[in-house]
Amino acid sequence: MIAIAVSWLMVWQPAFALGGPAASTAAKPSSTNTKKPAHRYVGVPTFADSSKDDIAQFDDPVVRAAAVQALGRYNGAVVAIEPATGRILTVVNQKLAFSSGFIPCSTIKPTIALAALEEGIITGDSMIKVAPRHYMNLTEAMAHSNNTFFETLGSRMGFDTVTKYAHMLGLGELAGYNIPEEQAGVVPAEPPKFGGVARMSSFGQGFQMTPLELASLAATFANGGTMYYLQYPRSEEAARDFTPRVKRQLDIAPYLSDIRDGMQAAVLYGTGKGSYDHEGESPLGKTGTCSDQASRLGWFVSYADQENPKIALVVLIRGHVHADEGPFAAQIAGRIYHTLKEQNFFTAARNAAATTAAILPER
Fold it and tell me: For the whole model, what pTM was predicted?
């Protein structure tokens, strides 16, 4: 559900260029120069050792190694889970992932799309005006993350309907089961003063979403509507006795194909194209880019292997440079998927599924 790669160097190179000291011979600006500083966010570093304080003894070693390597020296977090069970495979930067959340930016758009489809506001073929003489359907709007399209949907539905579906999909509540460090995100109690429900529906204004909540949402879309409690076994006993726990069953399967088309288009040619891997498992995904009071934020939520979803993945990066955007988070996810493909992660999953099917009795 949640599938032309951009050069790693093109994104990586500017970040390195920012580290050098300013030339000592640079001329001082005149008193009439009103040019603003290049980066107004300085409180959150772009680079950090994001995994240094993690306790990861019982993480899936293959998935964790791929995530740590792909994130590199960027300040961010990665959460990977099994869509079919809710089991957390790894959490890189646990302090960040278990925080009280961040504005979701455009990763709110799949939630808005589902609400609009189920409420009959649109179908997959509906065309909405997004500019003079320019109309888009849901697939193109998802692929290019068109704000006007989703602001229109939110305005047509209204605040109560938007928040109803947010709650239904697990926003504003703990996603995990017995994860002491986890904090819940926030669903706004009233429309934001700036932009109202339209801004809520395009940028996620007023929401605070955690990486775990977003991973749970991706897994629910991936498996067809079963929302599992996310469980993070961190002892031998918990790993041995792990049993999936269903949080709730959502009747959303009839609407998911239209959302999947949009998320696949985002990876094939839209804002998430950096995650595309023509040799591996290209995911379906959605980017998000915006800022909060402390930093720039880049999100990418995705899952891979449409026939047998093996992994749902959320990447969040923070900082104060241009690289801290959703398309770069998608590129990090693409590197994770590529490494997992090289490690035969997806092949092993298919073989395991085929073996299980072969030994089940016929009905």
Answer: 0.85
Task: Out of 3.40.50.620, 3.30.450.30, 3.40.710.10, 3.90.1150.10, select the CATH number for domain 41-358.
Answer: 3.40.710.10
Closest CA to 245 of 60, 59, 86: 86
Ramachandran bin of 206, using left for φ above 0, alpha for ψ from -120 to 50, beta for the remaining angles = left
DSSP string, 17-55: HTTSPPPTTPPPPPTT--PPPS----SS-SB--TTTT--
Question: Beta 284-291 vs 296-304: how paired, if at all?
Answer: antiparallel
Nearest Cα neighbor of 87 from 231, 206, 205, 223 is: 231
- Distance, CA of 261 to CA of 76 (rounded, Å): 28
**10 Å Cβ neighbour count for 27?**
6
Q: Which residues contact 293 (CB under 8 A, 6 or more apart)?
A: none
Contact of 341 with 323, CB cutoff 8 Å: no
Between 21 and 274, the more confident residue is 274
CA of 253: how far to CAs of 82, 111, 114, 223, 260, in Å? 19, 14, 10, 9, 11
Which helix (DSSP H) or strand (DSSP E) does residue 287 occupy? strand 284-291
The 10s digit of each residue's pLDDT in 155-181 is 999 999 999 999 999 999 999 999 999
Give the C-alpha separation, 196 to 190, whole Å. 9
The DSSP-derived string for 155-221 is: HHH-HHHHHHHHHHTTTTS--BSS-TT----B--SS--TTTHHHHHHHH-TT-BB-HHHHHHHHHHH
Cα separation of 222 and 238, whole Å? 25
**Where do the domains of the chain lie?**
41-358
For residue 265, pLDDT beyond 60: yes
Residues in the chain: 363
Number of helical (H) and strand (E) elements in the chain, helices listed first? 13, 9
Condensed to tens digits (0 to 9), the pLDDT of residues 62-92 reads 999 999 999 999 999 999 999 999 999 999 9
The Cα–Cα gap between 20 and 127 comes to 48
How many angstroms separate the CA atoms of 258 and 252, rounded? 11
